[in-house]
């Protein structure tokens, strides 16, 4: 980060990571129907990196298992995320990162909805509207610079 760029949340609070999901003998059995659940959705997004810090969204408490809802039978996933500060300028970018990760990882049958946790951001309504607009999301993901930043959040080990 150059000297001109300034962190909004210089000293974020870091939270403990959840343990690994306990596997059962049927987890790898293709003959057993295993519907998606909230923990699986959380596991998909928990390691996304914050755009400003070398920390995961889980470590910053931006995403939690309790903020992930899934209805396998209705093909619907909802993830609420909580920015670390009420005026976080990276909230749209974080929402796009979560949305892209889920769209890449989940079967196409799922409708994915990503929103800011109610009451946690000054521009919550506007950002939620942006994240729900398929055309705006598609246009944002066509922006090479923005896509590069999102990919660094999704794949931090490949970041330069």
TrEMBL record:
Record flagged with keyword Calcium: no
Q: Name one GO cellular component term.
A: cytosolic [4Fe-4S] assembly targeting complex
The segment(s) forming the MIP18 family-like domain are 40-114
Question: Known SUPFAM superfamilies for this protein?
Answer: Fe-S cluster assembly (FSCA) domain-like
Q: Which UniProt keywords apply?
A: Chromosome partition
Q: Which GO terms describe its biological process?
A: chromosome segregation; protein maturation
Q: Which family does it belong to?
A: Belongs to the MIP18 family.
What is the protein's name according to its record?
A: Mitotic spindle-associated MMXD complex subunit MIP18
Species, as recorded? Halocaridina rubra
């Amino acid at each position: 980060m150059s000297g001109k760029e300034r962190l909004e949340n210089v000293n974020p609070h870091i939270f403990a990571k959840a343990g690994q999901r306990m596997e059962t003998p049927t987890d790898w059995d293709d003959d057993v129907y295993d519907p998606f659940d909230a923990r699986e959705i959380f596991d998909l997004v928990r390691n996304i990196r914050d755009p400003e810090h070398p920390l995961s969204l889980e470590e910053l408490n931006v995403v939690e298992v309790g903020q992930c809802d899934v209805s396998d039978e209705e093909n619907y996933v909802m993830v609420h995320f909580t920015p670390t500060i009420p005026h976080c300028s990276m909230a749209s970018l974080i929402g796009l990162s979560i949305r892209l990760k889920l769209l890449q990882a989940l079967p196409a049958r799922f409708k994915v909805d990503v929103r800011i946790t109610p009451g946690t951001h000054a521009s919550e309504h506007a950002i939620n509207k942006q994240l729900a607009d398929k055309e705006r999301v598609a246009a944002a993901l066509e922006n090479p610079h923005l896509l590069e930043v999102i990919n660094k959040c999704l794949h931090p080990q490949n970041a330069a």
